Amino acid sequence: MGRLAVRLAIQSALQAGNLTYVGTVFPARPTIMDEEAYYQTMSGTATQESAAGSSCVVVVNLPGQDKRMRRADTGRSAVNDTNIHPVVLELFFASSGGEAIAAQQDYDAVVDSIVTFVRNNQTMSAPATVWSAGEYTAGVTHNQSQPYTSADGLTILIDGTVRFDAWEWIVGSGV
């Protein structure tokens, strides 16, 4: 259990989820560089995957502050805790079809499929690791950038994020 297990569970579940137009799902940022170069690199990856239409590359991030706290008074030697991890899925979408409305509709289909997947698979297919995802007050939220085109003007690009919390429930002795 812990951050690594939660991150890998989310990545594995999304990759296996057969989500609309979703290609590669990275468990973390595959490269570290300044933000502008990072967005260009990831958009380029999505563009390569969209050769026949639309594709989205997803990056699993666990930014911010995790919060582990006792949930039941079980005594000092026993544990009954939650560990709550904020999750941000970075979306890098590319459409080589050249149609702005069609690209937006394909992007919307990506987001709809991810949100539906998270809400229908609250354990991220790993119930021993993820107790709950996308529930409670955090819910599942989405944010989208304005669409733009690649340098050659042939590919429509849209960046976005999907946010939710992933909870672990840790029970045992001295865990």
How would you explain this protein's 3D organization?
- The structure is a single chain.
- With 175 residues, the chain is α+β, with helices and mostly antiparallel strands.
- The protein is built from 3 helices and 8 strands; from the N terminus they run H-E-H-E-E-E-H-E-E-E-E.
- It has one domain (3-173): Phage tail protein-like (STM4215-like, 2-Layer Sandwich).
- The protein has helices at 3-16, 35-49, 100-120, and strands at 22-26, 54-61, 67-70, 78-95, 132-133, 141-144, 148-149, 156-173.
- The N and C termini lie close together (10 Å).
- The relative contact order is 0.22.
Average pLDDT, rounded to a whole number, is 91
Structural class per helix/strand content? alpha+beta
Question: Cα-atom Rg, whole angstroms?
Answer: 18 Å
Query: What is the level 1 CATH name?
Result: Alpha Beta
What's the SSE pattern? HEHEEEHEEEE
CATH superfamily label:
Phage tail protein-like
- How is the biggest beta sheet arranged? 8 strands, mixed
Secondary structure: helix percent: 25-40%
Could you please say which CATH topology applies here? STM4215-like
Low-confidence stretches: none
Shape: elongated
- How many independent structural domains? 1
What proportion strand?
25-35%
Annotated CATH architecture: 2-Layer Sandwich
Count of separate DSSP helical elements = 3
Number of distinct beta strands: 8
Ends apart, CA distance between termini: 10 Å
